[in-house]
Write a structure and sequence with these properties.
single chain, 228 residues, alpha+beta, Jelly Rolls, five-stranded antiparallel sheet, three-stranded antiparallel sheet, 43% helix, Crp/Fnr family transcriptional regulator, WH_DNA-bd_sf, DNA binding, transcription, transcription regulation
C-alpha cells in the first residue's frame, strides 16, 4: 500500500464513529483497510449474500434498501459521507438483510471485518459510537413501521426525518442530494405526499426550501409535529 493511500485511509478513520478510537488502534486498523470506488447504480452488497466487510462512505451517496418478491423497492436509509453503510454487517449471522446501491458515484473505505471486531475488544468508545449510530437508524425504522400502520401521520414522518437529518449532519441546513422519489420511499410515503408536506411546512414558516436544500427554521414546531 502506498503512503499516500495509507494517509488517506488514516484520515478517514478520524471521522464518524471512528473519531472515538485511540491513535494506536487507528494506526493498526488502517493497515486492514482499502479504498474501493463505485459507480452510480453499482451494488456494493446484496440482500441474501453472506456478511461482508464494513464500509465507511468517503464520497458519493448510497441507498440501503430491500425488495419485495414482486420487485418493489423499499428505501430504508440514505447514507452520506462519514457514515458506515451498515454497522450490522459485523454481526449478521444468516446473510445480509439489505442491499446497498450507489446513488451518486464515490468511494468507500472497506474495513476488514475480523480486524474491526478485534479492535472493538479494546475500544469501548468505538463500540458506544457504533451503538449510538445504530440506535439512531433504528429509530427511523421504527417510525417508518409505525407510519406504515397508520400510527404516525405523513406530517409526523416528514418532521421526524428532517429533525433526524439535522441531528446527524449537525446543521439546520440540509442538502438533500437525491430525488424526492427516493426520499419519499425512505419515509414510506408517496412523492406527491412529500411534496405537499414540504410545501405546507414552508408556507407555515417551519422550513425554507431552495431547490434540493432545506433549512430548518423552527425546530421546536417540527418536534411538536413529529411527536403529535
Amino acid at each position: 500500500m502506498e503512503n499516500s493511500e495509507l494517509q488517506t485511509i488514516f484520515s478517514a478513520l478520524q471521522t464518524g464513529p471512528f473519531a472515538a478510537m485511540s491513535e494506536a488502534e487507528r494506526q493498526k486498523l488502517a493497515h486492514h483497510a482499502r479504498l474501493q470506488p463505485f459507480g452510480q447504480g453499482a451494488t456494493l452488497f446484496r440482500e441474501g449474500e453472506p456478511s461482508t466487510d464494513p464500509m465507511l462512505l468517503q464520497t458519493g451517496m448510497v441507498k440501503i434498501c430491500r425488495h419485495s418478491s414482486q420487485g418493489k423497492e423499499c428505501v430504508l436509509h440514505i447514507v452520506r459521507p462519514g457514515r458506515l453503510l451498515d454497522a450490522g454487517v459485523l454481526f449478521y449471522e444468516e446473510g445480509l438483510p439489505v442491499t446497498a446501491v450507489g446513488v451518486q458515484a464515490g468511494t468507500v473505505l472497506r474495513l476488514d471485518r475480523k480486524a474491526l471486531l478485534e479492535t472493538l475488544q479494546h475500544e469501548a468508545a468505538l463500540g458506544v459510537a457504533l451503538l449510538t449510530a445504530m440506535s439512531l437508524r433504528q429509530r427511523l425504522f421504527i417510525n417508518k413501521i409505525a407510519g406504515s400502520q397508520g400510527r404516525i401521520s405523513v406530517s409526523g414522518r416528514v418532521a421526524a426525518w428532517l429533525l433526524h437529518r439535522a441531528k446527524m449532519e449537525k446543521s439546520a441546513t440540509l442538502n438533500m442530494g437525491v430525488t424526492q422519489e427516493t426520499l419519499a420511499r425512505q419515509m414510506g410515503i408517496s412523492r406527491e405526499s412529500l411534496s405537499r408536506e414540504l410545501s405546507a411546512l414552508a408556507s407555515a414558516g417551519l422550513i425554507d426550501r431552495n431547490r434540493r436544500r432545506i433549512t430548518l427554521l423552527d425546530a421546536d414546531a417540527l418536534r411538536g409535529r413529529a411527536e403529535a
